């Protein structure tokens, strides 16, 4: 099993939640999402590289796609992408709706 196969269920779940939010006409605002994406992807790159560089985490190179950002495999970013899709969507889906917005 490759690392992408492990990531697929998380990405699919996040896509389904985002799709549900968009289907209800509850889309997260673009600017906060773009800023959050830039910050979270940068932090993921920095800390994943630090963790891998210090030897705390190692990967089986045969199970990786080979695409790297520094020392971090691109597969490591899938959880960040899933969180960036799911958290704003859940925030809007679970927000109490006032009667005039129903």
How would you concisely characterize the structure shown here?
The chain is mainly alpha-helical and 102 residues long.
Q: Tell the overall outline.
A: elongated
Strand order of the largest sheet: 1-2
* Gyration radius, in Å: 17 Å
Q: Give helix % range.
A: 55-70%
User: How would a textbook summarize the main sheet?
Assistant: 2 strands, antiparallel
* pLDDT < 50 stretches: none
Quickly count the helices: 3
Structural class: mainly alpha
Name the average pLDDT: 89
Quickly count the domains. 1
Secondary-structure element sequence?
HHEEH
Amino- and carboxy-terminal Cα gap? 45 Å
Beta-strand proportion:
under 5%
How many β-strand stretches?
A: 2
Secondary-structure map:
Layout: H1 3-23, H2 30-53, E1 68-69, E2 72-73, H3 78-93
Antiparallel strand pairs: 1-2
Helix pairs in contact: 1-3, 2-3
3D structure, described in words:
By secondary structure, the chain is mainly alpha-helical. The protein has one domain (3-14, 28-94). The protein is 60% helix and 4% strand. The protein contains 3 helices and 2 strands; from the N terminus they run ααββα. It has a two-stranded antiparallel sheet with strand order 1-2. α1 (3-23) runs parallel beside α3 and α2 packs antiparallel against α3. The longest helix is centred in the middle third of the chain and has 24 residues, at 30-53. The chain starts with a helix and ends in a 9-residue tail after the last helix.
């Amino acid at each position: 099993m490759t690392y992408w196969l492990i990531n697929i269920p998380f990405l699919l779940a996040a896509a389904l939640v985002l799709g549900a939010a968009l289907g209800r006409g509850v889309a997260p605002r673009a600017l906060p999402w773009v800023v959050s994406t830039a910050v979270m992807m940068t932090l993921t790159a920095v800390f994943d590289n630090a963790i891998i560089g210090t030897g705390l985490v190692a990967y089986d190179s045969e199970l990786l796609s080979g695409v790297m950002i520094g020392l971090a495999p691109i597969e490591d970013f899938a959880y960040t992408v899933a969180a960036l899709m799911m958290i704003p969507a859940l925030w809007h889906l679970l927000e109490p709706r006032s009667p005039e917005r129903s």
